[in-house]
Design brief:
One of its GO terms (biological process) is translation. With 89 residues, the protein is mainly β. The protein is built from no helices and eight strands. The protein starts with 21 loop residues before the first strand and ends in a 10-residue tail after the last strand.
Length: 89
């Protein structure tokens, strides 16, 4: 009896899908509450003002505004837009 399987194909075929990590919204881009800003493994980027962090380290917007990076690109904030002054009519 053979001790090796023929062709070796039964040992192949295991490959995982890509995780699709990285920055999803870049500096200056507009976001609404709930938009995912970054998917990461560990704290590569830190959550700043207006940004929440999920249990899998996903960073997401808590408020509507625009994305802003600081601390040499390591902290992500969402800055609320400046409210336009209402014109009295």
């Amino acid at each position: 009896m053979a001790h090796k399987k023929g062709q070796g194909s039964s040992r192949n075929g295991r490959d995982s899908n890509a995780q699709r990590r990285g920055i999803k919204k870049f500096g200056g881009e507009r976001v609404i509450a709930g938009n995912i800003i970054a998917r990461q493994l560990g704290n590569k980027w830190r959550a700043g003002k207006g940004v929440g962090q999920g249990k899998d380290f996903t960073l997401f917007a808590l408020i509507e505004g625009s994305v802003m990076f600081d601390q040499e690109g390591r902290r992500i904030n969402v800055v609320a837009p400046v409210e336009a002054t209402a014109v009295a009519s």
